[in-house]
Every structure is written in C-alpha cells, then in structure tokens.
Fold this protein.
Amino acid sequence: MKFFLIAGEASGDLHAADLIRALRALDPQAEFRFYGGDAMAQAGGTLLKHYRDLAYMGILPVLTHLPQILRGMRECKRAIREWRPDCVVLVDYPGFNLGIARYVRQHTLCPVYYYISPKIWAWKEGRIRRIKRDVDRVFSILPFEVDFFEKKHGMPVTYVGNPTVDEVERFRATHTEPMPVFCEMNNLPTGSPIIALLAGSRRQEIQDNLRRMCLAAEPFVPQYQLVLACAPAVEREFYEEVLQTVPEKARPVLLFDRTYQLLAHSKAALVTSGTATLETALLRVPQVVCYYIGAGWLVRILRRLVLKVKYISLVNLVADAEVVPELVGGDMTVENVRTHLASILPPGKAREPMLLAYREVYRRLGEPGAPKRAAREMIERLKGEVS
C-alpha cells in the first residue's frame, strides 16, 4: 500500500514516524511519501518537503510567508494527485491539512484519515463541518475527544491511545545513564541539579517565552543549572540571538536532540504548552506551563470568549483538573513564573501533590501501543475488513 502523510511540526513529525514504522511492520511492502521532518525521514520513505519550510504561526509571519505556504500546498496537492496513494494521513496542522483534505475529497482520490486531530474542542469548533465532510476517520490520541467528536458532533472516531506514552516507555526501557554520565556527555557541571526549559518548537514561541523563562529562573542559579531543550528545526544561532539580552548568569546551556534525557535528569521544568507538557508529566518532572502572548489583557478576554475548554495544557485537559499551573498571556510574568517554580522545586509545597496527580493522567491515557492500534485499523479499513 501507498501512504501519504503530512505533519507540520516537531511532535507531529515524531508521532508520524512511529506510525510509519507500525504501518511497515504490518505491510513490509508499504511505500511512504510525506511532508514532515527528520524523524519521518529516518523512519523511511520520501521526504518531499520539510515542515520548517511551512511552519509559521501568528498573523504577521503567516502573511509574510503566504506565497511560500500556498506554493507548498499546491505542490502537495500535485504530489498526491500524481502518486495516487491508497490513503492520506493527516497529523494535526489544521490550517494546511484541512485544505489538503478538501482537495482529496473533491477529486475522490483516496480515503483521508486524521491521526492526531486538530484541537477544535478548544477553539475554532466550526472546523468540525470540514472534518465531517472531508475526513473518513479520526484516530484520536486524547480520551476526552471521543465524547466531543461522537456524542456532540456524530463524527466517527477511534481512540487508539496516546503515542507519547509509547515514546516515553520506549525511552525508559533504554535509558540507563546516571546523572554524572549525562552531565559529562553534555559538558554540564556534575554538582548542580537541573531546571529544564522547554520554550516551544516555533520561532515565535521561543521569542515570546524563552527570555522570560530565563529571567524567572535566574535567582535559582547557581544552586541549579539551566538547560534548554532546543527544537530540532531551529538553528543554534537563533537561540543565541534571543538570549543576547539575557544576563550571562541566566543563560541556559543549549541542548539538541536530548529532550527526554534532559527531563529525566531535571528537578523541575518550565514548559511552553503543547505535547511537551504531557511528555514532562509522563517523565514525572514537576512543571510550570508558560505561554506568553502580547496584549495580555486582550488575551484574558479572548480566552473567556473564544476558548471552549477550562485549560490549555494537555496535562490538565486529560486530568480534567488543574494539575499544573498555567500562566498564559499577561499572567506569564517573570514574577509569577518564579513564584510557581519555587513551589515545585524541593521542598516546595506543590511538588509532591503534582507528582501524585500525574498518576491519574497516566491512567487516563491508557496502555502503550497507539501507533500499532492506529496502523492496524487503517490497514483493515483500506482492505475493507471493517466499515
């Protein structure tokens, strides 16, 4: 069978790579072409365009790069039309992927599956009409999405489990290096515990959040050392430019391709909302969720008017409770982040309750095996074995 996949950022690239491996395990002759990233390329297949060439967020960056984005969409449509895959698998990235889904449906090219659906339960719920019209099946990775899609909107959905559980479990099974070895391998001092900084995977997120994170953590240096988990598609030079205005004492060590290892050896983390919040929880690291947006007063109003959910972090959404603090928009001040960080570092009063609450998050996500379950059902549906 031939599979065409589209992922638009780092976590989607990772999840799609695991899905590719699961599909190939069931169909060794399977062929893959994709818009994605390095992880998908390593899993095997043909990378047609890297997500870094299309991953822009915010009105101004999108408008500035609109010709590039539109050209990428035209090329993607042409690639699907000419290659004629057995199915198209979309991985989040709704601004791009819903346009592709519409094209595939209009031209009756092949089934369209959504693996890791857009977060329309949070905002832009009107997109459900496009998904119901153009997508054959949603493969959900968040347990609360089942009620949203099926009960509220009558959209067929399969909850396959969460692939982050698989990724963390795989890491735990192979990760054995003690803290001194980790520090020595990455040129870090061996005597200072670590505060991890995860500032997002997109440049705008990094610009908005990283400096504030560093300043919030500054008073805890040198008792702790600051280490930044760098996004794979962002150059070191970009981070260094952002950090130029940060006092030398508060500048973190930059670490690439070692996010799980970093979290495994960290006492606490400052995390920009996204899949990273879930990864941090599953690796049992207390965290503060930080997501700065300009015009904070406006964000507060819009959050009440636009967002359909109580929380923005996946940890709190899965738990349906405030397990981790969320500092969003104008609430993400250096002082607020610093106060919450102090409460989750030993012996802070919020530390142990948060670690205890993580157990419920893990329970609700279910057992490992999400990519395998998704791959199995996709192939069964393509063969007509299930309806």
The longest strand covers residues 2-7. Residues 2-161+369-382 form a domain with the Rossmann fold fold (CATH 3.40.50.2000).
